[in-house]
Amino acid sequence: xxxDATMPIFSPDRxxxxxxxxxxxxxxxAGGTYRPLxxxxxxxxxxxxxxxxHHGSKLYTQKSAIHxxxxxxxxxxxxxxxxxCLPEMVSxxxxxxxxxxxxxxxxxxxxxxxxxxxxxxxxxxxxxxxxAHTTAKTLSAAGHAVAKAAKxxxxxxxxxxxxxxxxxxxxxxxxxxxxxxxxxxxxxGPWKKRMRFSxxxxxxxxxLLTSAEVIFxxxxxxxEPTYDKGDEVDQTTKILNSVAGQxxxxxxxxxxxxxxxxxxxxxxxxxxxxxxxxxTNRFWIATLLFGTxxxxxGVANSIKIQLRNEPIIPADFTFISGGDAGNIASFIPDNSQxxxxxxxxxxxxxxxxxxxxxxxxxxxxxxxxxxRKPFASAKNTVGxxxxxxxxxxxxxxxxxxxxxxxxxxxxxxxWAAKQGYTPTLFDAAEDARNNGPATTFLSLTKAPTMDKxxxxxxxxxxxxxxxxxxxxNSINKxxxxxxxxxxxxxxxxxTFADPTRLPDITxxxxxxxxxxxxxxxxxxxxxxxxxxxxGTANIEYQALTGLSLANFSDSMIVPYQQLVPTQSNPxxxxxxxxxxxxxxxxxxxxxxxxxxxxxxxxYKKFGFSHLYSLxxxxxxxxxxxxxxxxxxxxxxxYQDVLDLIKNQKNPEFLQVVTMQNHMPYSNYYxxxxxLQSSVTDDTPDDEHSAINVFSTGLKYxxxxxxxxxxxxxxxxxxxxxxxxxxxxxxxYLKEEQNPDDSFxxxxxxxxxxxxxxxxxxxxxxxxxxAAFSSSNYFMSxxxxxxxxxxxxxxxxxxxxxxxxxxxxxxxxxxxGIGLGTATYLQSDGTVTDSTSMSKTQKQLLxxxxxxxxxxxxxxxxxxESDFMSVD
Length: 871
Prior knowledge:
- This protein is an alpha/beta fold.
- It contains 31 helices and 16 strands.
- An 8-stranded mixed β-sheet has the order 8-7-9-4-11-12-6-13, with helices on both faces. It has a 3-stranded antiparallel β-sheet with strand order 1-2-3.
- A hairpin with a 5-residue loop joins strand 15 and strand 16 (about 830).
- Helix 29 crosses helix 30.
């Protein structure tokens, strides 16, 4: 009985309170149904605590009691599904009385007619729930798809890897392969124990390679001399004057003349070599880079000397950064192709040998270091610190040496001077021959623009402005025209110079009869050019700005590359037109690539609205060529200019740089069209052929220029043309050897012409004013030719031209003309120097230098005045 008393009593009544799962009877009511609910008492009796443990249904595993009450009434369920979850909640027995009451109230409120706006809200909630559900299903499906794709991909990769492994094992199981593997396994031991090359061996390679590169660079700046048949020259002299003899002299002067210029070049290249070694920390990789780079530099340097009588300078690397390397390569003459191919072969051998030695040398790092565990041991710490320090110190020493080499009084300049270094940077080619191209290049890495003139100050510049304002007012009293009332066309004709001027060369016909006739009827003369064989951008810079290279420091070789890109607001004469007409006041045409000499950048700084070139946003339209020439003809360029004039809204300043007669001079034209010249018997055949082709190009320029001026005469607008040649081409090899021909190699021709619609038509200035000039005077001469009013700046140039007809930094050809960095001509064409000038000339020259310094290196005090303004 006791047992029975303790046993749990099972009674069907205990389940009387369980929620009913019997289908409820539906009682239709408009819009919904009634479903009966359990009464409150039964509900209270149905708490989970009262249920027997014999029932394991999950329905009764709720931890919290259900406090639902019921009055055995029914709740209305909207037919619209307002409370779709309520039946489930009620049937599960998990809804409290408060919830039901709340839902009841909500349902009843739905039935109230005075609140119809709640239905759209609940419908929106329902739509949102459905959208969320749909999105969840979509994301889930996407996740499954991604997982499936990843699984498939992984399986494919696994299969592929297994296949590769199987194929590899099959391959390595071949008997022949097993023999090879065994061979390498046996050889690995000795290979791992291969020797480390000693630092002494590195030093030998370093010395030999650096010396070889110094000699190679020096060899590239010399050329074989030529002799007349009548000259009696002994064999010893010929040997000494040969390229081999000159290179030998350059090296041996350390003992013969106590001039260690070979050592100066060795140190310069050696510092570059050491910097590469310490930065890469790989001796053979640094050797490969050094040998390849310096050899390529030597080849380019030799070709540039041959073509333009100028070595490679740091500013030339702007051509590469500007993307013009391919265009420059097109200038390589045919007779240098074999030289380039041989150099490429040498470079390939250097690369192959360095890579082989890199593999054979077990010493990979020049200085031991460990970047993974730099401080794991004392050895690692010292090695890592030494490697970093060596790299930094080598670069700092190289930079200090190079930037100070061209600065007098600096440590590297003073050391080099003790070794015999005497810079002549105003003649870079001669400096390279005398001091070595490596030293010349490094001396120009830091180029001071101009030495500060004595007395430079704000007060001094204000006084100069007032002085030349008075002069301009005095000149303008007798002038009646305005520069901006006419279109001015400044034409730089590439390599235009009278080819009959040089001795020992005669032609069957005159190459330039039309231009010669034009020069006889209008303002014209001879221009003293600072260049021979090159320097186009320098002559153009002088013509556009009125500034002279003669006033700059010797290391300022190419202002277009070294100076203008660093200036914020440089002055140029086209601004006279842009100040009046705005952007439509000036445009430029150059039928080549716009980044050559950074013209695209510099022209923007000067204020030109457009530069029309082959690759500009709006390219030149006319690009016809003559024969096989790679350059656009002058007639096509002139047609582009005519198109601009026809479409212009107002007078303009037009800057034009042609390309037709640019070097090299290959067989471009039909044989029957080529002019034939007579030269002395000892003139090399290559030189003779180049002279004929060059002169034929001038014949085409001569005819195109006549046609161009004739068409300008048909335009009823005042137009003035300033036409000039920049320099002679570097093809007169024999004349280069003769100091007596130096002046002739720096003479070109110019003229200033106005069309019939211009008030200055048929004007010709007296030869006493125009016979000799330099490009910095062209705008002041054009204003005088046009009888136009001028600015104080142009007044200075006008007066200076009267007193010193030509100023130029002439590159003296091995002992010819040229006194220091500047050459000055008197009115009769004779050379003078600053010490023998009159007081007036000296004062004008001093004022000119102050103005140039203020514009380029000084405070630009003149910008605050009206010094550049034309009334």
